[in-house]
Amino acid sequence: MMDRRFYQPMNKKHWQGRVDSTENFEAFRWHQWVKPLNLDENPKEPIQGLGFAFLGFQSDEGIRRNKGREGARKGPLSIRKQLSGLPCYFKPEVQLFDAGDVICIDEELEKSQQVLSEAVEHLLRLNLFPIVLGGGHEVAWGHYMGVEKHLHNQGKKGPGIFNIDAHFDIRPYPEGGSSGSMFRQIADHCRATGQDFSYFVAGIQKQSNTIDLFKTAEKFGVQHILGKDLIETKQEKTKTAIDQYLNSQEHIYFTVCSDAFSTAFAPGVSAAQPLGVDPEIAIKMIKQLLRSKKVISFDAAEVSPRFDQDDITASLVKTLIFTVVNTRCLNDDLLIDIDV
User: Fold this and answer.
1) I need a labelling partner for 173 at 20 to 30 A (CA). Which of 149, 182, 189, 217 fits?
2) What is the tens place of the pLDDT at every residue in 121-146?
3) 71 φψ region: left (φ > 0), alpha (ψ -120 to 50), beta (else)
4) Is-above-0.85 flag for pTM?
5) Four-point Cα dihedral 267, 270, 275, 276, nearest 10
């Protein structure tokens, strides 16, 4: 059972939108198909077939500790509003669930991350593909730990990490974790438990990372691609590097920080970037990763409605999630065949 102080089940009011038909599935939108999944009721039986579960992480505490611009706590609601109107391109066999929200209260970040890890592990145990909606990027620590626990329960090693981000997020954390320390925490955890730390990040901006962070990344064996190298003319080189990483992994935890994109595409973030990854390039990476069939969980972090303009950032994340879901469905031949 979930800790009720840190967990809220799905609010149906968060899923509303236009209705063209109540009978023709091919006219449906996601808000007509999503169903509640209350983790507080401790459902135990695995879901049959392919299913996705949205889980919000309402937290600004990691951003506050990192001295960033707070506002991402309301990101999950903003993203859900955008997801509601997406059309159903998958077959009716595919299930969508909303598992509610993990909430950081009273600055108890570590406790909320623990509850998040339990929720993610529970969703994976139910044979669902978790899609976690941030919230600050401190979501990554709890999310990773939930994936790792699930894999260990199956006798498998922890996942590799693929991150689209302007930052390494491997800063030290002498006063507690933040939205800038998660992957350092994971690295330390792996070292303490005798596991390999495998981390690939694409979109790194030099102006957003100190020389020491580049050296720390090298020390920990972090693979990275600079944002300036994620361009069309270098796509083949990027694809090869990602394929090599994928070939070295059994499972992937995939995370995207919205600040990887420029303010033209993502103004509503904690640390705005004048330059950033082209969303079209990111979508190509997402498809490459999902087609590997090794990605078992996904999150999108740091959508901050407080700084967003016309919901541009939430709309971008909506498009990324649409790509994740449809590519995952394509792997199982569960997309509706349409010639357009």
Assistant:
1) 149
2) 999 999 999 999 999 999 999 999 99
3) left
4) yes
5) -90
